Amino acid sequence: MLEIKFVRQNLSKVQKALSTRGETADFETFKDCDARRRTVLLEIEELRHRRNVVSEQIAGMKKEGKDANILVVEMRDVSARIKALDKSLSENEETINNILIRIPNIPHASVPAGKDDSENPIVRQIGKRTEFEFVPKAHWTLGESLGILDFDRASKITGARFPLYFGAGARMERALINFMLDIHTTEHGYKEVLPPFIVNRQSMINTGQLPKFAEDLFKLEGWDYFMIPTAEVPVTNIHQNEILNEDLLPIMYAAYTPCFRSEAGSYGKDTRGLIRQHQFNKVELVKFARPETSYDELEKLLNNAETILKRLELPYQIISLCTGDLGFSAAKTYDIEVWMPEQGVYREISSCSNFESFQARRANIRFRKKGKKGTELVHTLNGSGIAVGRTVAAILENYQQADGSVIIPEALRSYMGGKEVIRP
RNA sequence: GGAGAGAUGGCCGAGCUGGCUGAAGGCGCUCGCCUGCUAAGCGAGUGUGGGGUGAAAAUUCCACCGAGGGUUCGAAUCCCUCUCUCUCCGCCA
């Protein structure tokens, strides 16, 4: 959420920023309500002031045994008036809030302009695209023939877009989770967290999934609870309504969680394989940073995520999301895309964003600056470090052999009991 | 699921027979003093959000004692609903 004062004072700037995202909001209603809000507020505060003063008078008179009835009767009217104005004020504020809460974040100045994902510039490419002397197979073909992936049976258990791993496949998921968490906690300084996988409505609002994107979420029937679409939600909300100690910043968490997404609106896309599932595993990195350093922290976070792909020796590229492709809450986002040989494309495997104070304002996460009065909102950042299912898919495709076997990346072998190759 | 207790400022903790209590006291923190060093000691200050005036420093007003309603001229204090925490019983991996 943007600050109401900021929107009020920078109306055209906000409008312009939104249009670069291909978004708009009802600024006319905002302007009207905002102006009316302040008029009403002024009157309410005057009346309340009067009530406070007179109430004190009444108290004094009663103490002295005098009759205060005239004042009491007068105050009865004042209170009624306050009550009526209060009601109109809160309706007004609700209208304003409904507009504000649907306005996305303003892109950072360094974010490239562009209308959609076709205009995301490549920042860098690392590793040579894997080449084969045979026609490479898709990971689902390999996975099924190796007996480690079974989408048919998964659909019996639940339905389409759910994964079922066996043997070395299941082991590889577990190995990757441990591999990633170990690197981030021991080499990059993140604290490991294991959060709830189900969260309440407020947490979803705080990180920006609600109210706009309810259709992307799985909701629990009979509860106002939701399955998490990413660990970003529970982990960012760890510190909601807290004033953090400046000395502790940046706070860095690494969390493994499964993620649940309805994938509404993606019908027909990536219908096969591990790329687009309703349930997948992910290791997520989350930071709470000082505003002055948050963009440095974003670069570091991106490097931390890249380390995983480097160690696994998977070719990848970094793109910077353009204004039109930026997520709702993000001020800037880098995507990491891994090379998928069968389709011959780079596919998203991590998304690293700086949300600046957008989430912190909703979640009320602040810190106190040394030697300065008052509090300041922290900047929140997060990034996948990295998506586990897609990493399995990338390993299968990039490490496949002519005979249909798959070599296990060296860095991962110790996590898989020394196994070097997966054969049927 | 049943019975009971509780939720107060960065933290701990009074107040809860309604009226200078934004809130005692303590800790912490900041500044100053003192002191061979450290520790201790002394003094002052120290919540958040919003509105008005002001160039600013500042000043003033309003709100906030888990959340939301209600009673009242007036609510941290009384009533209702909800959320969470704790204790006992039941159930349970």
**Spatial order of strands in the largest sheet:** 1-8-9-10-13-7-6-2
Order of helices and strands: HHHHEHHHEEHEHEEEHEEEHEEEHEHE
Overall number of strands: 15
Give the strand content. Answer: 15-25%
Low-confidence runs of at least 5 consecutive residues: none
N- to C-terminal separation? 52 Å
The helix count comes to 13
Computed CA radius of gyration, to the nearest angstrom: 27 Å
Helix content: 40-55%
Structural class, judged by helices and strands? alpha+beta
Mean pLDDT across residues: 92
Would you give an account of this structure?
Helix 3 runs antiparallel to helix 4, helix 5 packs across helix 12 and helix 7 crosses helix 12. The protein is an alpha+beta fold. Strand 9 and strand 10 form a beta hairpin. It has 13 helices and 15 strands. It binds one RNA strand of 93 nucleotides through helix 3 and helix 4.
Spell out the key features of this protein.
RNA-binding, three-stranded mixed β-sheet, 40% helix, eight-stranded mixed β-sheet, elongated, 15 strands, alpha+beta, 424 residues
Could you give a quick summary of the protein structure above?
The protein is an alpha+beta fold. 40% of the residues lie in helices and 20% in strands.
Topology:
Layout: H1 4-9, H2 11-20, H3 27-63, H4 69-100, E1 122-126, H5 139-145, H6 151-157, H7 167-187, E2 191-193, E3 198-200, H8 201-207, E4 225-227, H9 232-236, E5 242-245, E6 251-260, E7 279-289, H10 294-311, E8 316-320, E9 332-340, E10 345-354, H11 358-363, E11 365-368, E12 375-377, E13 379-387, H12 388-398, E14 406-407, H13 410-413, E15 421-422
Parallel strand pairs: 2-6, 5-11
Antiparallel strand pairs: 1-8, 3-4, 6-7, 7-13, 8-9, 9-10, 10-13, 11-12, 14-15
Helix pairs in contact: 3-4, 5-12, 7-12
The structure holds one RNA strand of 93 nucleotides.
